[in-house]
Design brief:
By secondary structure, the protein is α+β, with helices and mostly antiparallel strands. It is 42% helix and 13% strand.
């Protein structure tokens, strides 16, 4: 057995509601991540235990399954929310780290509002594909353990097969959880959430005399690192609401996400993001906006005097821009061969991105080809502006004493050879829905993303960029 624990119940009861996932008499397997199970659990589960776990009927879960309450700013508008189609089964420990086990698409809860509590097979397969790709790219993320077909249809724009995903995450505490405590509960509940979150995610701060500020800044650092890594691989999350912003710094909820092909700084794929609020180049600003909301929730704990609390909160928020810039450029300059950022390397990465956009170059290929250009004149960009940039680039590498081998190694470790291509993902999901299962192509995709920084003719052809202006008309959906 898994020896599940439920420390979340240390919080006041309004933070959760006990539920029972819907019965699934017609359930059957679609996919199971045996490698993840072997990595996390002390002993392998029996086939029966696996099925019971991923359908919420494992005996040790009985009476302990719950849905979380939270609030959040969705596209800038504040509202009361909660787990409308998910259920937390419990927690387990692995190498000193606590993880949640959660079902997604497991039925209605008291927080479902007008939702049906269900999930489509294509949406759950997308989350599986994207979360595994992000993991192998080295980006913190929830992980997918398994997917079951429910045997029940789900009505969206058309009828889809229904499915339940089992996912693993350090926790599902989000900025929206703090917003819920601040604006719907009392100060004692907010304080309890803070102390629980610190103990669970930032235990080094438990005895700190400056715990609240250090907690906010720790969450900020984790989120800045996360979003900088998203942007370094051309990832657009698409729905960076505060209820989708984890305090642990993990990526989760992969509904309208996409990877950029032909580079555009304002790339936005979500069908409901009509103003481009969560576009590629807005993600750094939005994560700061979200963290400002977190800071606001904690003002009553910072100081009982409103003016003093507000002054301290403003001092914290004023640090965000500098911290973001530090993480962003420290991450991005590695893509052009620099281990440490400098003013010159910052200018060079900014210029390179402008050139990629102007020349309509594929984001992933533009950087991966740059890895070879020191020894290879056959680079994809041969325009005069690019040649001038390359002259300045090689001069700065030499000025910093970085030889070609060191620069290439840095770039190869920072620039994936392949990412999940939107066109391929959509075609694969459509095929899986038609057959209500997965086939050879899906398994080949999982192989291809396992070592994304290693070039491979076998996989690179499969995940090449689409022809034409595919991204101009490509739209993603939340899958709710």
């Amino acid at each position: 057995m898994l020896n599940l624990e439920h420390t979340y119940f240390e919080l006041p009861q309004p933070f959760y509601t006990h539920i029972n996932p819907h019965a699934l008499p017609k359930k059957k397997w679609v996919l199971y991540n045996e490698e993840l199970e072997f990595a996390l659990f002390p002993k392998t589960l029996s086939p029966k235990e696996r099925l019971e776990l991923c359908s919420g009927t494992l005996k040790e879960c009985e009476g302990h399954i719950f849905a979380q309450a939270y609030a959040g700013h969705q596209f800038g508008n504040f509202t009361m929310l909660g787990d409308g189609r998910t259920a937390v089964l419990g927690e387990f420990l692995h190498q000193g780290q606590r993880y949640d086990l959660q079902l997604k698409g497991s039925g209605t809860t008291p927080y479902s509002r007008r939702g049906d509590g269900s999930a489509t097979l294509s949406a759950m397969l997308r989350e599986y594909m994207m979360s595994e790709a992000m993991h192998h790219l080295g980006i913190p993320t929830s992980r997918s353990l398994g997917i079951l077909l429910t045997g029940e249809p789900v009505q969206r724009e058309k009828t889809h097969p229904g499915a339940v995903l089992t996912r693993i995450m350090k926790s599902h505490i989000r900025i929206g959880t703090f917003e819920y405590a601040r604006y719907f509960l009392d100060i004692e509940s907010l304080d309890a959430l803070l102390n629980y979150s610190v103990k669970r995610h930032y235990p080094q701060l438990v005895d700190s005399t400056n715990k609240i500020e250090e907690f906010i800044l720790s969450v900020a650092k984790a989120q800045f690192q996360l979003v900088a890594h998203w942007m370094s691989v051309g990832f657009v999350h698409g729905v960076m609401n505060t209820d989708n912003t984890s305090i642990s710094g993990e990526t989760f909820d992969y509904g309208p996400c996409a990877f950029i092909n032909q580079f555009k700084r304002n790339a936005c794929f979500s069908s409901i993001d009509l103003q481009g609020r969560y576009a590629y180049d807005q993600q750094g600003l939005i994560v700061q906006w979200n963290l400002t909301r977190l800071t606001e929730t904690l003002l009553p704990l910072i100081d009982k005097h409103e003016e003093k609390a507000l002054k301290k909160g403003q001092e914290i928020v004023q640090q965000f821009q500098g911290l973001w810039q530090e993480e962003y450029y420290s991450t991005m300059v590695r893509k052009i061969g620099f281990q440490q950022k400098s003013e010159a390397s910052k200018i060079l990465i900014d210029q390179f991105l402008l050139l990629l956009e102007k020349e309509k170059v594929d984001f992933t290929l533009g950087f991966s080809n740059l890895c070879r250009t020191i020894n290879d004149d056959d680079f994809c960009l041969q325009s005069s502006p690019m040649k001038r940039w390359m002259d300045a680039w090689t001069i700065e590498l030499a000025r910093q004493g970085i030889n070609q081998e060191a620069a290439e190694l840095t770039m190869r470790n920072a620039n994936p050879a392949r990412v999940p291509r939107n066109k391929f993902v959509e075609e694969l999901l459509e095929e899986c829905e038609k057959q209500e299962g997965i086939g050879t192509a899906f398994h080949l995709f999982l192989e291809a993303i396992r070592e994304p920084y290693q070039a491979s003719e076998k996989y690179d052809k499969m995940l090449k960029p689409p022809d034409g202006d595919f991204d101009l008309h490509y739209k993603t959906f939340c899958g709710t």
